[in-house]
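User: Structure with flavin mononucleotide, tokens only please.
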Amino acid sequence: MTFFKSESGVTPFYDPNKSYAENCEKGPFGGFADGVVYKNEKEPTHDFLGHKVYLPFGIPAGPIPNANFCKGGFEKGFDIIMYKTVRTRPHPCNEFPNIVPVQAGTKLTIEHASAGLTMGKTFKKPIAITNSFGVPSISPKEWIPDMKRAVELAGKGQVLVATYLGTPGNGEEAFIQDWIDGAKMIIETGAPIVELDLSCPNEGKSSLLCHDTERVVKIVKAIQPIFTEKNIPVLIKLSYFSSDKKLKDFIEKVSPYVAGFNAINTIAGDVRTENGEQALPGKGRLISGVCGAPIKWAGVDMVKRMARLRKELSLNFIIIGTGGVTTPADYKEYIQAGADAVMSATGAMWNTDLAKEIKAENL
Ligand SMILES: Cc1cc2nc3c(=O)[nH]c(=O)nc-3n(C[C@H](O)[C@H](O)[C@H](O)COP(=O)(O)O)c2cc1C
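Assistant:
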């Protein structure tokens, strides 16, 4: 079995050395299983889409695959938890391993990622991983009640965000219908906020849905009335946009239908072993999404550009900054760049005290 040590000795709350099924069944692990509960004091004062939170900080869609993990995250003081992206139908997980270390240096540029990356031997600082799950989903019959439970697990000053995506297959009309069906299922869970995952590299291989503005407009136009009727704000998860023109066009056309944007997802690149072989087993898995410390620049850059556009176009969407947050200083950098909320996936996995540390400096 593939086994990658963490040089810090930490077992992440989602354990990369265990299969997805084992994580879902027996997790969470590490700090989320130590029984130590963070206690918030005073009253929550930050507004997050109509919900009062202690700190607009949390965990984005990904390492939190079910309600047991949500419980672990809320108990450690992560006030905004996004439940891992679900689908309207069961979908298998890519073959194990799904998370491996990559050698990405301190800053992973788009050019570097496009040229390809080499897998690392251990998980070490600055933490950089590639994740490749294929957006697995259990059946809605199972995830709807589990997400319902997750919604209820949010304590005072905390909120759960549902995330989902449509599955392509039988033509454009069926694809849009799948997004609509998904919206109805999410409503059944009682989730107060939803995020549309338009940026998973496993979905479109090299072409991401979020880079196809016209298609995104079709989706948001179709689902917006369903969520608006229930007063559920819609967020959009974005990848990095290199072109300012494309980003402006996207924001202008999509923002009328949504409450905000969350950037970024991962930076996609080919990942090989030191011998030049495909690192992750299976078809279509040479390319995967890199996340962790070296992608912070890209998240901060997107937040700054979206904040500029928000002002320039006199719009009022919220901006969530995600990517490479591993310290309280990173949180501050995102807030100063214009983020209304900040998320950490990889950083939180390896440091379950991250929310506590950020709160110690900011509350
Ligand atoms: C284990 C793992 C699984 C992920 N799965 C999803 C997912 O299902 N949906 C999604 O929108 N993003 C997913 N992501 C991307 C994260 O939400 C986030 O955008 C990205 O990891 C960058 O943040 P980070 O540098 O803090 O990890 C996943 C990330 C990780 C680490």
